[in-house]
Design goal:
With 255 residues, the chain is α/β, with parallel strands linked by helices. Helix 1 runs parallel beside helix 2.
Length: 255
């Protein structure tokens, strides 16, 4: 099973659920494509006023589905296609959505999970959640657009710790650094996410959409073309291959 992204609508609210049982909702290529389709559709729903994004089974999202990586990561063209079309297609659709988005974060929020959370407007977390992007252990960097997103939303110090030190931070620390709006007991986060979304839904919907458009416009820049051009040259590199092979073999990588 490659996982799925499910949408449930209840009145003025939509709930987008990341589901990949047994993998802490790690994002497969199919899930990235579904995420894009889901948010492209939600953008045009005039009957909705707010979206909740959550993971199933007590976790938000543990990153990418590394079991798929040997199929496409070691060729530059296919690696570029994955990040620029699949991953950024999903993240970009979230960022382009004019509906306010509330993140309900529990358990693991790693790599792709942090990126998805970065696309949300209000971030609520269980006090047991953990955040990071430890891809340095896998021998590859974060793609430029994704770095820019994390840098903007999580801050430079946090982005550097996650990417250069493979740091994993708890919810209290992420709240102190301004990434989270609230940290709650694990058994309260779903209720609070619902209540916050309902509060948003009772306010002026056109004003919310205009505010999101303004926030998006004022905060947007594009990574330099030269950076994007060279970003995937590492595809067939020894570190990249060793990091992924070690993870799949359940051993420590030797760089």
């Amino acid at each position: 099973m490659s996982g799925r992204v499910r949408v449930d609508v209840d009145g003025l609210l939509a709930r987008v659920s990341l589901s990949h049982p047994g993998k802490f909702n790690a994002m497969s290529r199919a899930m990235w494509r579904e995420l894009r389709s889901v948010f492209d559709t939600l953008q045009h729903r005039t009957d909705l006023r707010c979206v909740i994004v959550a993971g199933e089974g007590g976790h938000f999202c543990a990153g990418g589905d590394i079991a798929e990586y040997p199929d496409f990561r070691f060729g530059e063209a296919s690696l570029r296609e994955f990040h620029e079309t699949d991953v950024w297609g999903g993240l970009g659709a979230m960022l382009a959505c004019d509906l306010p988005i509330v993140a309900q974060i529990e358990g693991n929020c790693m790599g792709a999970g942090v990126e998805i959370a970065c696309c949300c407007d209000i971030r609520l977390s269980a006090d047991t959640a953990r955040f990071g992007a430890p891809i340095a252990r896998l021998g590859f960097p974060m793609a430029p657009r994704e770095v820019q997103l994390v840098l903007r939303e999580a801050g430079a110090a946090t982005a550097r710790e996650m990417l250069l030190e493979a740091a994993v931070l708890d919810a209290a620390e992420m709240k102190a650094r301004g990434f989270l709006n609230a940290v709650l007991p694990a058994n309260e986060v779903a209720v609070q996410a619902q209540e916050r979304a309902q509060r948003v839904a009772q306010l002026a919907p056109d004003a919310a959409r205009l505010n999101k458009q303004a926030l998006r416009s004022l905060g947007s820049t594009e990574p330099p073309a030269a950076l994007l051009e060279q970003a995937y040259h590492y595809a067939n590199g020894a570190e990249h291959r060793e990091g992924i092979a070690a993870f799949l073999a359940k051993r420590r990588a030797v760089f």
